[in-house]
């Protein structure tokens, strides 16, 4: 995620983001390191993804501009915290979510148009998390965007601010649109 992470970091920095809160994975660790190393930003690690939304909401209430950085498996794990804190409070929170399992699902022939049925969910050769990511965001009514270019960072931030609610930027391991 070095070039994607750099581009995402620069756009978030330009937008005034002060804190990155989350639990890094192999894709987002370089992005979190950028937040940690920069003099105007801070990385706040959490032990579970659900904590990230409460910490970010607290930072927002305190006048800061946080971003949450987690993996899609963590997004699913943190559903109640996401709903009960960030969504309910109307926090205009950009959430960067890595799209774990997407490459494997695509490699297995999944096109993205199939419903999340049993035949895909029980396969041992793929990580079905990718299968559940977008349908879950749609079911929760959360706006999201697949990362294709640095402009998508601005678009998802704008959506969060205008709609006064969290919005998700999905980033695949390859750094492009799934």
Using only C-alpha atoms, the radius of gyration works out to 15 Å
Instruction: Please give the domain count.
Output: 1
CATH level 1 class label = Alpha Beta
The biggest beta sheet is recorded as: 6 strands, parallel
**CATH architecture identity:** 3-Layer(aba) Sandwich
Compute the separation of the termini in Å. Answer: 14 Å
Poorly predicted residue ranges: none
Descriptive account of the structure:
- The mean pLDDT is about 90.
- The radius of gyration is 15 Å and the shape is globular.
- With about 180 residues, it is α/β, with parallel strands linked by helices.
- The chain contains nine helices and six strands; from the N terminus they run H-E-H-E-H-E-H-H-E-H-H-H-E-H-E.
- It has helices at about 1-15, 30-35, 50-60, 70-75, 80-90, 100-105, 120, 130-140, 150-165; strands spanning about 20, 40-45, 65-70, 95-100, 145, 165-170.
- Helix 1 (about 1-15) crosses helix 2 (about 30-35) and helix 3 (about 50-60) runs parallel beside helix 5 (about 80-90).
- The protein has one domain (about 1-170): Thiamin diphosphate (ThDP)-binding fold, Pyr/PP domains (Rossmann fold).
- Strands 2-1-3-4-6-5 form a six-stranded parallel β-sheet, sandwiched between helices.
Attribute tags:
six-stranded parallel β-sheet, 9 helices, single chain, alpha/beta, 178 residues, 15% strand, Rossmann fold, 6 strands
Structure in a nutshell:
The chain is of the alpha/beta class and 178 residues long. Helices cover 49% and strands 15% of the residues.
